[in-house]
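$ fold --in a.seq
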Amino acid sequence: MKELDRLAPPGTPERATLDGLDLTRLPRHVAIIMDGNGRWARQRGLPRVEGHRAGIRAVREAAETAARLELEVLTLYAFSTENWKRPGWEVRTLMGLLREYLQRELDVLVSNGICLRPIGRLEALEPDIQQGLAKAVEATHKGTGLTLQIALNYSGRTELMDAFRSAARQAAGGELVADQIDEDWISGQLATAGVPDPDLLIRTSGELRISNFLLWQIAYTELHFTPVLWPDFRASDLIRAVADYAHRERRFGGVLSGGHGPDVGED
């Protein structure tokens, strides 16, 4: 594994965690619901904006750690379609931080070989943000390392609704018949087309909800919930999560090797 000493120096608990793992069992794709910015700020008597700003630093560390772990894909839930319902000042703050991230982190993404891929209804974002995203995509498209998917103005239900509308339009035009619609066809209509489904979904802040995130893609995803608030999420937290994943046996609705029945309904 590249840069393991930088990621987890020898003698640290994090390095001990990695040294004890079968590194071939690490997830290919990790998705994260980043939650807890507001609570982080409130606990410290700070304005809510400072929680969001601290969350940007956590994004940087998560992306760099995922790249060093040689994960293939990291998907971060940055802004949902429901987030537009937040107070106007907070939405403006989040969009301002997105602009700042695109300006300040582009060189970091390029130097780490990270390929940026925004997903969601991007056309609803302000023109300068769309332009900034397009610039970042162009600058990083040759990256051969991690694919960093940032979900912006994203909703799992909306994504599926768009796929259904696409099917209806194609059927009406005689380009699609019912029997052509299978799991591969549906996956190909989604914003995440071309990347593997998440192996591991992490949610921070102790909440136990999926929150309309990647609803089709996480059908067999392993879930990891941590009480750590997103601004406090560090490399060690991501390492512990992937280590937890590596110790699990994935069944995909079937049986374990040597098992005698499906896992549905079993303890």
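$ fold --in b.seq
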Amino acid sequence: MDTKLTLKLDKLVIDKAKEYASSHKRSLSRMIESYLRLLTERDMSDSKDDIEISPYVKSMKTGVKVPTDFDYKKAYGEYLSEKYK
């Protein structure tokens, strides 16, 4: 069910938004509705508990600790140099 809503916005913002909506062949009302729906759905999904990691993925742990300053690009470059000597 559609309900009317009145908003007070800067005229320049409204004009630019109307141009944007028109260039994308959408009404400004539908564009704002889509944006608000996206915001509220994202907010609801963020409130869910953390995603549970499957036992299979957990079994893939190697126990190797990688230093925080590890330069993987440099290490890979060195590996390739050795491989193709």
